[in-house]
Amino acid sequence: MGRLFFSVLLSSLLFSCTSQDIKIDTKQSQSHYKLGLEFAQLSLFKNALEEFNLAIKFNPEDAKIYRKKGILLFGIKNYEEAKNNFQKTIELDAKDVQAHINLGMVHYTLGNKTEALKNWEHAIGLNPDDNDSKALNNIGNIYKTKNDLPKAIEYYQKAIAYEPTNSNYLNNLGDSYRLKGDLDKAKETLLRSLEVDTNGMLTHFNLGVLYRTEGKFNKAIDSFQKSLKINPFYTEAYYQLATTHLKTNNKESARQSLKKGLQAEPNNLRFQELYNKVLAS
After folding, report:
1. N or C, which end of the chain is more exposed by having fewer CB within 10 Å?
2. Are 73 and 81 in contact (CB under 8 A)?
3. CA distance 10 to 25
4. Entry pTM
5. What confidence tens digit (pLDDT) does each residue in 270-281 have?
């Protein structure tokens, strides 16, 4: 704690310097950069940004500082500034794969999927020896949202080739198989995902949807309940649980599920409409 206090004091003194006082000093830059990382880990984001800014002032040609600053800005939802910092990283180091992936995430978050796809496709072509699984999975996500399931499956499989035990990638692949209608492969892949991570909330949820598609309503209910046990705030699971209870004519359990969903999202019209329909039936 004493070291951190001293670092904060030193930072405040240095931060008060004018731009004319600051010369290129890579050692000082690294010192501020490392302190910025420490502040970020402690969720002291304002302090972290100040340290990254100082690190940049002492060495404005260090690409990784802009990337880390961009990640922090993205985390606090300052997307435009995050985008600027990732673009600066790429300007300084055009082969920074992670910067291209991160820039794609900004575009994706802002709803510009076309630009995100360009960033991610560019990222995977930069270095054949890199583990590009994150970018490949992201590309798969975009094709999935476009309902181009063969393409989505292709990219998820490529991501899994890099990381065979990544439960998130397996879950995405399994759900894409389900949407494509290949229920056997979907079930096999989703169960593999649960072997890797038994607490995979979305995997339990997707298994629930799969079982309901197969008409195995009790198994579906069990899977939806497991997903809600892991994350009680995933409201879509309440809705799917309620509709599955209705398949078994269990209106009271459906009503209870919808009631819990409405407690989490009181203004959800879809929940309210189904809740009113159940009450009236």
Report:
1. N
2. yes
3. 16
4. 0.78
5. 999 999 999 988
